[in-house]
C-alpha cells in the first residue's frame, strides 16, 4: 500500500493556495511533464500524479 501523497506538494503550492494558484501550478507542471513533450521515463507517471492532484484539489468535495 502506498502512503498518501500530499497533492499540494505534487503541484508545488501551499496548503492555502487559491483556485487560481492551483490552476496556474497545474498548467505549469502539466506542460513540463506531458509525455509528448518530456521524453523522461518517469514523465507519464508524474503527469498522472499531477492530473490526480489537480482533480482532487480543484473539487471542493474531494478536497475535504
Automatic annotation (TrEMBL):
<dbReference type="InterPro" id="IPR001623">
    <property type="entry name" value="DnaJ_domain"/>
</dbReference>
<dbReference type="GO" id="GO:0044183">
    <property type="term" value="F:protein folding chaperone"/>
</dbReference>
<dbReference type="Pfam" id="PF00226">
    <property type="entry name" value="DnaJ"/>
</dbReference>
<protein>
    <submittedName>
        <fullName>Molecular chaperone DnaJ</fullName>
    </submittedName>
</protein>
<dbReference type="GO" id="GO:0005737">
    <property type="term" value="C:cytoplasm"/>
</dbReference>
<dbReference type="GO" id="GO:0051087">
    <property type="term" value="F:protein-folding chaperone binding"/>
</dbReference>
<dbReference type="GO" id="GO:0051082">
    <property type="term" value="F:unfolded protein binding"/>
</dbReference>
<feature type="domain" description="J">
    <location>
        <begin position="6"/>
        <end position="64"/>
    </location>
</feature>
<dbReference type="InterPro" id="IPR036869">
    <property type="entry name" value="J_dom_sf"/>
</dbReference>
Amino acid at each position: 500500500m502506498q502512503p498518501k501523497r500530499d497533492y499540494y506538494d505534487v503541484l508545488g503550492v501551499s496548503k492555502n493556495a487559491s483556485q487560481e494558484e492551483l490552476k496556474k501550478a497545474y498548467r505549469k507542471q502539466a506542460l513540463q511533464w506531458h509525455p509528448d513533450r518530456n521524453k523522461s521515463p518517469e514523465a507519464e507517471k508524474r503527469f498522472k500524479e499531477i492530473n490526480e492532484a489537480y482533480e482532487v484539489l480543484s473539487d471542493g468535495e474531494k478536497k475535504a
